[in-house]
Amino acid sequence: MAQRCDICGKGIMFGHSVSHAHNLTKRVWNPNLQRVRALVNGQVRNLDVCTRCLRSGKVEKAVRNRGKAPVTA
User: Fold this and answer.
1) Which residues contact 44 (CB under 8 A, 6 or more apart)?
2) How high is the pLDDT of residue 53?
3) Per-residue confidence band for 17, with pLDDT thresholds at 50, 70 and 90
4) How far apart are CA 13 and CA 26, in angstroms?
5) What is the 3-state secondary structure of 32-46?
6) Residue 20 to residue 8: CA distance in whole angstroms
7) Is residue 57 within 8 Å of residue 34, measured between CB atoms?
8) 7, 16, 37, 72: most buried by Cβ count inside 10 Å?
9) Is the Cα dihedral 45, 50, 51, 53 positive or negative?
10) Residue 68 above 90 pLDDT?
11) What is the per-residue pLDDT across 21-32, written as a single tens digit (0 to 9) for each?
């Protein structure tokens, strides 16, 4: 799976781990992605979304209605 948010495009970042002796080793920071069932243009799709987008409300989660009466609000 590509480590990229489907909403904002946030991806992996590169850098170095720096020890106390200032030895540099390469490392990677991955975004915190969650697999979410979301409504996109009236369709239910599975998206890889970062937690920042989930928290800020940029994604409308799809509701599972397991054979029960439709929910009307």
Assistant:
1) 37, 38, 62
2) 94
3) very high
4) 11
5) CEEEEEEEECCEEEE
6) 35
7) no
8) 7
9) negative
10) no
11) 999 999 999 999
Name residues whose C-beta falls within 8 Å of residue 26's C-beta, 6 or more positions apart in sequence. 14, 15, 16, 17
Query: What token pair was written down for 43?
Result: 């369709």
Spatial contact of 71 and 62, defined as CB atoms under 8 Å apart? no
Distance in angstroms (rounded) separating the CA atoms of residues 71 and 65: 8
Would you call 16 exposed, middle or buried from its count of C-beta atoms within 10 A (0-12, 13-18, 19+)?
Answer: exposed
Helix, strand, coil shares, percent, the chain, to 5: 10, 40, 50
Over the stretch 19-64, which tens digit does the pLDDT of each residue have?
Answer: 999 999 999 999 999 999 999 998 999 999 999 999 999 999 998 8
Residue for token pair 């409300």: 57
How far apart are the C-alpha atoms of 60 and 54, rounded to whole Å? 8
Token pair 């009307």 is at which residue?
Answer: 72
